[in-house]
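The passage that follows is intended for readers who have already worked through the single-chain material. We present the inputs for a multi-component assembly, then the predicted structure in tokenized form, and finally a short commentary. You are encouraged to pause after the input and sketch how you expect the pieces to fit together before reading on.
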Amino acid sequence: MKADPRGVKTGAHYLDGDHACAEGALAAGCRFFAGYPITPSTEVAERIASRFPLVGGVFIQMEDELASIAAVLGGSWGGKKSMTVTSGPGFSLMMENIGLGVMTETPCVVVNVQRGGPSTGLPTLPGQQDMMQARWGSHGDYEIIAIVPNSPQECFDLTIQAFNLSEKYRVPVLVMMDECVGHMTEKVVIPPAEEIEVFNRKLYDGPKDQYLPYEVDNTNGRVPLMAHAGDGYRFHVTGLTHDEKGYPVMNAEVQQECVSRLIDKINKNTDDIIQYEEEQITNADVVVVTYGISSRVSMRAIRLAREQGLNVGLFRLITAWPFPEKRIKQIAKKVKAFVMVELNLGQMVYELERCIAGKAKVKLAPHAGGWVHNPTDILKIIKEAAK
Amino acid sequence: MTEATHPMENILRMDRMPHIWCPGCGIGTAVTAFAMALEKAEIPLDNIAVVSGIGCTGRVAGYMKLDSFHTTHGRAIPFATGLKLANPELTVIVFSGDGDLIAIGGNHFIHAARRNVDINVFCLNNFNYAMTGGQSGPTTPEPAITTTSPYGAFEHPFSLPFLAEGSGAVYVSRWTALHIRRLTNSMTEALQKRGFSFVEIIAPCPTLYSRRNRLGDGLEELKYYHDQIVIDHEADTRELGIGFRDQIVVGNFVDRERPTFMDALNTRFTEVFGKKYEPYGKVAHENGN
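Having made your guess, compare it with the prediction:
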């Protein structure tokens, strides 16, 4: 499927990450947006509010983030690709309904332009401190998809991809930007609509009396076929544990079946979902694992290390969740050490350590947020790791 | 011999019966009135979506053979807002309880009314949180006994019609589980009215509210409604507070016109963009939905 040209502003632009993200949503076919202002994400909502009227979209500023995410889920069941945008405090408020989105298998995109926390923290300054919340923030067992752009161009490209993945796997997809990437302005090339691939949710079109909203279609990656309200199937959707009819069933057997499938549809499709960028991994002694703005700062440190004769590779997470476990395990067999560079005091590093399971050394280059790392601090840790 | 069928089997999920509600509970009666109103309003059943939150009344969506959504606690109204704005052709009803809509969901209630989103909110008020075992809530009259007001409630309760009118609802009524015919008619009017319509349904909770307050069974509660109800369509909603075992004023209090969210959006954008703007959801509006 190609993008609807109404939403695509083809050309070379000079945009910040927030605006590029909004353009990505428009190009992906997002036509319902509900949000609440919060720094440093507000510019996404502002651009959508300004662009939607002439592309057939509906923008609504809700009374809070609880309402925003609930409206986004409703918008998706009403048949529109739907999105909301927020930052830390709002992301916290959205957690319960992100779980409802997971449980009811509602395609939608939630963008978090991360700032420093906890609590109100540093509204105008960067952080990457919601990475574990993205994975575990809602209650219960589940899997989710979270992707991390490191440039305005990627804010555009990966927002489209976030929609495509959410439509394909019927799961909320989180775009984990950060204040730096959101507010940095660079060249963003928006291709012609016919060059943008969009994926639309697969809809049921069989006999009305035979529709089972949560019947597993094994040909479709364990993802059930969706129907929209008003399509005539008169289906039921609940956040309670449910059977294939969508009816609540309160027992351990149905719980096992229901939750396992929600997990399997992500975990058994990781080859399709996961993306990463590698550079000079083959002969590396040390591999720097990083993401978002930290990956760009790390590049400087890596170059300095190479100038000093060290063999340092880069592994950039584009997909943070599900974590590229398989690939990290392969690399762990060959290298001496990993250095995780992230704008927090240790989050993704725990997942890295779990995957490496002692096969190589792991060092963290921590930062409490509020600014980016100093490349020389990263260099110091790379050198320690290389010893 | 023909097999007996339930008269509402086209609108209720008979494969989910029996329902979870207690004997004497008023929710079943309210659902009957709702089903009859949907028929009377002559809205094609395929175009209706019901959204509930959490609680005893929150289970209503699950028993309606319609597109039905059982969402999270307090969030039925914003979910319904998204549904309606994404597909303006739908008739959207939020059917939930007083705790769900007015306590945890209170902010959404006032803002949806303010925006005049074209949805119908049917709020069943049984004066307590029943699903969790009978705790006090934003409608519990002073000084009713509940598990969290063991010495009697002492907070001032909301008057829901006053709150709805003050927030901007275009249709506001209150009936009880005794007034099946009037409740049905009022729900029908609400369904046919464009904009944010609000119907409060006072209903017995014999298992928890009545038992803890030694008020007898469900029938006893209906007798109380019979004896203490005053029907007054002209009543000032500022005076509709409900005291413990006091008289309850019911009626169709508000029926007024105000542009809906979608009307206002289309008007504004047409003014600004002229012919470049294609009014959103226009077809549905012309059909009087």
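Commentary: Strands of chain B lie at 48-52, 67-70, 91-97, 120-125, 171-176, 197-202, 229-231, 248-255. The mean pLDDT of chain B is 95. How closely did your sketch match?
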